[in-house]
Amino acid sequence: MTRVEVETPHGSARAELHSAAEGRAALLLGHGAGGGFGTDDLISTVRTATSAGVHVALVEQPYRVAGRRAPAPARQLDAAWLAVVEDLGQRWFPELPLIFGGRSSGARVACRTAESGGASAVLCLAFPLHPPGRPDKDRGSELAGVEVPTLVVQGERDAFGEPEPASNREVVLVPGDHSLRADTNALSRAVAEWLGRVLRLLD
């Protein structure tokens, strides 16, 4: 594992790099709004992806590196993410397809930046379709805007809603809530199976 800092328009971001034995692609994963790298779903996804031959970069947004818990505005999150994508793509993952991903808020960033960042696929862990109890605040347009293969892994009891599958979007429900910690084996299976299909498309 290697840790690197990346300068962005909104401060220093941090990336934790996990190398696979053979690098067929690189997965960049963002954290949730108030969390970091240590959530069960991100840890499980790192292990699953590297076992599948995919390098992983866990990306920590500048507001978290600076010690703040309240997330930055969406435009700042997106700009910082894209700066990290450009830097890591050139320095660490040249010539490799890039898969964007993240949990909760990080999944939203991955979706919003997929087109401009040149993502080959998108992985969403616990996509927050709407705030709890507020289905009127629907964020489905962020998912709908992604045109590359997408996987959403969602807890069956997620108070943030349940996205619908679409032509390029798979939705896998696993036991548990928004934390996705109830059954990490089910999460790993869903991610592994999807990555296998995506990598075959990218080869």
Looking at this protein, list some descriptive labels:
203 residues, 25% strand, eight-stranded mixed sheet, globular, alpha/beta, Rossmann fold
What does it look like?
With 203 residues, the protein is of the alpha/beta class. The protein has one domain (2-202): Alpha/Beta hydrolase fold, catalytic domain (Rossmann fold, 3-Layer(aba) Sandwich), CATH 3.40.50. The chain contains 6 helices and 8 strands; from the N terminus they run βββαβααβαβαββα. Strands 1-2-4-3-5-6-7-8 form an 8-stranded mixed beta sheet, sandwiched between helices. Helix 1 (40-51) packs across helix 6 and helix 3 (74-91) crosses helix 4 (105-117). It is globular and about 40 Å long. The mean pLDDT is 95.
Q: How would you sum up this structure in a few lines?
A:
It contains six helices and eight strands, in the order βββαβααβαβαββα. The protein is of the alpha/beta class. α1 (40-51) crosses α6 (184-202) and α3 (74-91) crosses α4.
Our Rg estimate from Cα atoms comes to 15 Å
**Helix-strand topology string:** EEEHEHHEHEHEEH
Overall mean confidence score, pLDDT: 95
Q: CATH H level: which superfamily?
A: Alpha/Beta hydrolase fold, catalytic domain
- The share of residues in helices is 25-40%
Strand content: 25-35%
CATH class: Alpha Beta
CA-based shape: globular
Structural class computed from helices and strand pairing: alpha/beta
Major beta sheet, strand line-up = 1-2-4-3-5-6-7-8
Number of strands: 8
CATH topology: Rossmann fold
> How many DSSP helices?
6
What's the CATH architecture?
A: 3-Layer(aba) Sandwich
